[in-house]
Amino acid sequence: MTTDLPRKVAAELVGTAFLVAAVVGSGIMAARLSPDDVGLQLLENSLVTGAVLVALILTLQPVSASFNPVVTAVEALLGHISWREAGLYAVAQVLGGTVGAVVANLMFELDAVSFSTQERTGAGLWLGEVVATLGLVLVVFGAVRSGRTETIAFAVGAYISAAYWFTSSTSFANPAVTLARMFSDTFAGIDPASVPVFILMQILGGGLAAALVHVLFPTADDPGGAT
């Protein structure tokens, strides 16, 4: 489907807003419904995140549905979109994510913005973010480069739900979502001081994934882009 740039930017903003609202909102709901069981909270949060990713990608993929600056940057690196487009999408993703976090806070009658105090730091968590982001980008562009874009929504939803559990960091894997989650002092939050290294590790994971995509999928059957 041919779409103009403003519509694509709007889709990235709206999609990322709903994604973050789902991540933060389900984290708040999980903490309230299962206050004494952190494992159950994580299960609830991961299932909702995976489900909403499937729904949002299926809905917005005909326009644009990356919702992630690292995925967008790899799209540009692989020549699927221009760097100008990538920059505009990234701005929309960060803005949308922030809106989503604020709306989630307000839905649960919390302060619109409350900076998280949940520290997430340490070599294990940083490695977890590299692994989480590498895997996500590989899943997306493995489908793109092999011409199976219709599978992306289900593959990404399943991967993120699983990565909540098999990575030590619970798979943020997205700079826009990471920035947004610092604005909610709730289950899904992240201390602002922990954000820069998380984002750096996500960029590293995305770069490694781009190189791996070149090795595993040297030719693109679908040059139209990831989303």
TrEMBL record:
Keyword Magnesium annotated: no
Domain of life: Bacteria
Compartment(s): Membrane
Claim: Secreted is one of the keywords in the record: no
Membrane topology: Multi-pass membrane protein
Entry keyword set: Membrane, Transmembrane, Transmembrane helix, Transport
Pfam families membership: MIP (PF00230)
Main localisation: membrane
Membrane-spanning residues: 9-31, 51-74, 86-108, 123-144, 151-173, 193-217
Family: Belongs to the MIP/aquaporin (TC 1.A.8) family.
PANTHER family hit by this protein: AQUAPORIN NIP1-1-RELATED, AQUAPORIN NIP2-1
Protein name: MIP/aquaporin family protein
Organism: Nocardioides bizhenqiangii
